[in-house]
Design goal:
alpha+beta; single chain; ligase; globular; seven-stranded mixed β-sheet; 482 residues; tRNA-splicing ligase RtcB; 15 helices
Length: 482
């Protein structure tokens, strides 16, 4: 199947549609949030073919959607959103991804860039020493079976109970850092083994811990509510459920593919394997996914403890503590209520490489954010910039309360390695005032700025579409990578 420009209808500025009539298997239209320039770039890979395939999922409603940072994934495109009717619509592990609850959080300091510049190199080295990073790298905590089940059940609350975090952090996390449907008994022993020593680790790939400063404020009222000010130093943490989440996905994708014929389900791409949510296989996967999501929230909380420890080691015990502004997931499925064609419906929203972006009045937000909307954290590529946005009520109208999650790759990791001289790039970043600490030059090359779309254009598109508004721009000072 090939999709041409003439197959795509412009619904309005920054909103495009491949109509349901494009292909007989489609149950809903397929929609793209993008500028015309980004749409042309999106058409260079199979993202839109995958988007059309997603529109064939049993029980899907509204439309299948992709964000402007979209790129090709397995089954679902990365940057994809799909809502299915609860409880008998489909659940698809590929609509969540292998790194369950990969997500990002932001810590704020009371220091500005000028105050810490002279200790920046020392800070980058201390953070690298405190935060285990790299493929398969274990951390300081080794969970016994009882502790593992507690983490899978409690999520970030486990870190609070065990002295790694302040209870106030839970208020500033999506779902308070815990999904109640988790069932550790449905997570395989292999998955638990893989995760037993990975709490407090970032892993490899595009995961990182980054020291930034607030370069620009676009919305002073929202920035004040979020505790952001110009020149302020902040820390971004981006990682997920590590090997445990990957194993959960692997285990259940295999079983769900085998179970599909029992429910008479046929999909245009076998990687879109799915079952009804209320089937035994569907409910078991969802409960295991919730457990892996809890592991990821606990992981980011333990990393925050490590960052805070490094901060005190460099700046002294009297330094003001780093405060959690917000933590949001971007590889997850959530049971939510949305209005579709004027009717309020309970749905299962798959977000794969897409982040929740609810507007003002959303009851789960901290009270300081209620009149502003949910913080949306958009990391850029290494060496560029990142953004803080605020979700809007418009997002709930057109994207099931969802937004993009980053800049979005335009080069594969293999292509990036071929084009990038990592030692030269590291030195260039240093000349720009950015200290990079990484376990290998390979990791630096794979995550080079040229491997990603222009985050500025992606974010402008999001703002112009109305699904989120810009609050602040962040500029990197130091990066820790696997």
């Amino acid at each position: 199947m090939k999709i041409n420009k003439q197959d795509i209808i412009k619904k309005e500025d920054f909103l495009w549609e491949i109509p349901q009539t494009f292909r007989p298997q489609m149950r809903v239209p397929a929609r793209v949030i993008a500028s015309e320039t980004l749409l042309d770039a999106i058409m260079e890979d199979r993202s839109l073919v995958q988007l059309v395939n997603v529109a064939s999922l049993p029980g899907i409603i509204g439309a299948s959607l992709v964000m402007p940072d979209v790129h090709e994934g397995y089954g679902f495109p990365i940057g994809g959103v799909a809502a299915t009717l609860y409880p008998d619509g489909a659940i698809s592990p590929r609509g969540i991804g292998y790194d369950i609850n990969c997500g990002v959080r932001l810590l704020t300091s009371q220091q500005n860039a000028e105050e810490i510049n002279f200790k920046l190199e020392e800070l980058s080295k201390e953070m690298y020493a405190q935060i285990p990073s790299g493929m398969g790298k274990g951390g300081q905590i080794n969970l016994n079976p009882k502790e593992m089940d507690e983490v899978l059940t409690k999520g970030a609350e486990w870190a609070v109970d065990n002295g790694y975090a302040d209870k106030k952090d839970l208020t500033y996390m999506e779902s308070n850092g815990r999904l109640d449907n988790a069932d550790p008994a449905l997570v395989s022993e292999m998955a638990k083994k893989r995760g037993s020593d990975q709490l407090g680790t970032i892993g490899s790939g595009n995961h990182f811990v980054e020291v930034d400063y607030v370069e620009e404020i676009y919305d002073p009222i929202a920035a004040e509510a979020y505790g952001l000010s110009k020149g302020q130093v902040v820390v971004l943490i981006h990682t997920g459920s590590r090997g445990l989440g990957h194993q959960v996905a692997t285990d259940y994708i295999r079983g769900i593919m085998a179970a599909m014929p029992n429910y008479g389900i046929k999909v245009p791409d076998r990687e879109l394997a799915c079952v009804p949510f209320n089937s035994e296989e569907g409910e078991n996967y969802f409960k295991a996914m919730c457990a892996a999501a809890n592991f990821a929230w606990c992981n980011r909380e333990i990393i925050s403890w490590e960052v805070r420890k490094a901060w005190k080691n460099v700046f002294g015990a009297d330094v003001a503590p780093l405060k959690l502004m917000y933590d949001v997931a971007h590889n997850i499925a959530k049971i939510e209520t949305h209005k579709v064609d004027g009717e309020k419906l309970k749905v299962l929203v798959h977000r794969k490489g897409a982040t929740r972006a609810f507007g003002p009045g959303f009851e789960d937000l901290p009270k300081e954010y209620l009149s502003i909307g949910q913080p949306v954290i958009i990391p850029g590529s290494m060496g560029t910039c990142s953004y803080i946005l605020a979700g809007t009520n418009r997002s709930e109208e057109i994207s099931f309360g969802s937004c993009c999650h980053g800049a979005g790759r335009k080069l594969s990791r293999t292509a990036a390695k071929k084009q990038v001289n990592a030692p030269v790039l590291k030195e260039k970043l240093r000349e720009m005032g950015i200290y990079v600490q990484a376990g290998s030059f390979k990791g630096i090359a794979e995550e080079a700025p040229i491997a990603y779309k222009d985050v500025n254009e992606v974010v402008e598109t999001i703002q112009d579409s109305g699904i989120a508004k810009k609050v602040a721009k962040l500029r990197p000072m130091a990066v820790v990578k696997g």
